[in-house]
Amino acid sequence: MSRHLLGLRDLSVTQIQHLLDLAQSYADGERPAGILAGRTLMTLFYEPSTRTEISFELAAKRAGAEVVRCDVDRSSVKKGESFVDTVQTLEALGADAIVIRHPMAGAPTLASQLVRCAVINAGDGMHEHPTQGLLDLLTVSQRRERIAGLKVALVGDVLHSRVARSALWGFTKLGASLTLVGPPTLLPPLLPSSLFPLPSQVTMTSSLEEGLQDADVVMALRMQLERQQHGYVPSLAEYARYYAVTARTLAYARPDALLLHPGPMNLGVEITADAAYGARSVIQTQVANGVAVRLAVLLWALDIDEQREPPRSLRELGAERGNAGAREREVAEIPATRPLPVIASGASRSGGPRGDLMNNEIATGLRPSQ
Ligand code: CP
């Protein structure tokens, strides 16, 4: 049997906690050697990626799987092959699991309805990025021992962010409260709760100071220029002036607040170097946790997670470590005076209509050729 991971909205609290416990055992150094021997993972990324694609590959290879990367730009997609045919071709070639990133919300959902192998969503349009959500939860729970009761602020381009949507479901299911912070144009449109019931622990504000007040966790979101059809802010400089997470604005949050960013960062836009490389940043830990999380997800999706020793819970592990947190890499100390890189000026502004973005827009709307 195989399972699909399409979004954290679909998972129960028990399933999320199980995946986090499993991932923690690998973050703590459990060796996965051979557990995926004889299995084939295929990655199919229609959008660029560094962290997600590489960490899926690393996780699968460390566990003994064969890994095949379908390079979309050199594949028959360039000759007009449809998404549906491409996915079915990969299954016919022997995929046990296909990891899909696609600009269209719901593409992995569509694929999951067409194949028997496991489909894992590696980010679909403005819908969800569930493995990112899991690694965000893991990173915070390693440092805080709990998610329940924490106050989490998501700052920036919430409207276009699949990371924000997975964080929303993950953090609220585990009992955190969430504040969405950004200019009104970059917050999801308010919908009647009868149409779309948001979890009651979610609030929104356009004041950075108000949104960060007493926050235990601050997550800066990437400005998704590639999904913006027209100017949502007067200029990036003006956006940064009011909404960038900096060492100064981070002071609105609790003194021990954690700073997350899913990456890649637009330094000088949604986050500045003094915050990103400062003492509160756990951004490199997020990246490192990606491998353990994706390994856990692969085992779960292929239904072999129960064939190993049951992992101990994060709580047990935390008590054993004296709350020292999980194995972590030190965040490099980079002086706050480091020059800021120039912001890419050629970002595409096509795609991505504004709409009911908390929902999976797809599933009925995706045409096979997309
Ligand atoms: N956070 C994230 O998805 O990064 P990549 O685009 O590099 O995979």
- Total domain count: 2
Q: What is the distance, rounded to the nearest whole angstrom, between the alpha carbons of the first and last residues?
A: 28 Å
Can you say what the CATH homologous superfamily of the largest domain is? Aspartate/ornithine carbamoyltransferase
Summing up helix and strand content along with how strands pair, one would put the structural category as: alpha/beta
Q: Could you tell me the radius of gyration in angstroms?
A: 20 Å
CATH architecture of the largest domain: 3-Layer(aba) Sandwich
Q: Give the beta-strand count.
A: 9
Can you describe this structure?
- It contains 11 helices and 9 strands.
- It is an alpha/beta fold.
- The protein has 2 domains: 195 residues, Aspartate/ornithine carbamoyltransferase (Rossmann fold); 155 residues, Rossmann fold (3-Layer(aba) Sandwich).
- Strands 7-6-5-8-9 form a 5-stranded parallel beta sheet.
- The longest helix is centred in the last third of the chain and has 19 residues.
- It is globular, with a radius of gyration of 20 Å.
- The structure holds phosphoric acid mono(formamide)ester (CP).
- Phosphoric acid mono(formamide)ester (CP) binds next to α2.
Brief sketch in words of this structure:
The protein has helices at residues 13-27, 51-62, 83-92, 107-112, 130-144, 162-173, 208-212, 236-243, 273-276, 283-301, 314-320; strands spanning 40-45, 66-70, 97-102, 118-124, 151-155, 177-181, 202-205, 217-220, 258-260. The protein is of the alpha/beta class and 370 residues long.
